[in-house]
Amino acid sequence: MSGKTEKLLSLLAGQPVIPVIKIKHADDAVPLARALVAGGLRMIEITLRTPDALECIRRVAKDVDGAIVGAGTVLNPKQFDEAVAAGSKFIVSPGLTTSLIAAAANSDVPLLPGAITPGEIMTALEAGIDFLKFFPAEQAGGTTFLRSLASPLAAARFCPTGGVSPHNAEEYLAVPNVVCVGGSWVAPDDAIREGKWDVIESLARGASRLVPA
Ligand code: 3PG
User: Fold this and answer.
1) Which residue of 2, 76, 84, 118 is most buried, as measured by CB atoms within 10 A?
2) Mean pLDDT of 178-198
């Protein structure tokens, strides 16, 4: 296991679900993150899919006790650096590129990059990255595909994300090479829009209690 993986695992501290969050308005970031933390999900991925995303990361890093905020949908080294400067403790990308591998190698902040095919996974392992986002999980073959990677690519562990929900999360968690799952279901767009932080806290609490099936 690489040192960066150890770092990610220690940030995760057994949390079964990484919430994947898209926030339109920076003012929602702090109450949303507080609700997730109150529900037991401390490690939070804020995706760089909205103009306010970096500001959201800044505010959560500064103002939410107990939150471990990271950036998702990081596509290139420039975004990697901006996300780290905003206070991200980890970086998630949907795929693996040579430029992101290089950016991660030059940073103390760990990268959780997407990799699905055996070739992508081998490239990651060669770069010393052995904890990977398996994205999009359901569409790519789900638990059956993941189980078939376990023997030939035994060093790789995964965070399946994409199409994971309370209905199938525990099946994913039961796969031996799965560490945790990622999902957006804990922070639905309408609950954020309406400021229903109690709903989000309750969804987070449910997610934080998921166990392998
Ligand atoms: C994403 O990056 O969109 C995540 O994989 C979330 O997928 P989900 O909305 O299916 O949970």
Assistant:
1) 84
2) 97
In DSSP terms, 210 is beta-bridged to none
Tell me the residue range of the domain where 151 lies: 3-206
Q: Residues 4, 22, 45, 89: which is the catalytic one?
A: 45
Give me the CATH number covering residue 100.
3.20.20.70
Ligand 1: nearest atom to the Cα of 183? 11
Cα of 20 from ligand 1 centre, angstroms: 7
Q: How far is the CA of 158 from the centre of ligand 1 (A)?
A: 15
Q: Confirm whether 211 is domain-assigned.
A: no
pLDDT at 13: 94
Average per-residue pLDDT for the chain: 97
- CA 107, 108, 109, 111 torsion: positive or negative? positive
Strand, coil or helix: 190: helix
Q: What's the predicted TM-score (pTM) here?
A: 0.96
Residue 1: its pLDDT value, please? 77
Percent pLDDT > 90 in the chain is 98
Q: Whose Cα sits closest to atom 3 in ligand 1?
A: 162
Structural domains in the chain (count): 1
Is position 45 annotated as part of the catalytic site? yes
CA angle 42, 158, 8 (to 5 degrees): 40
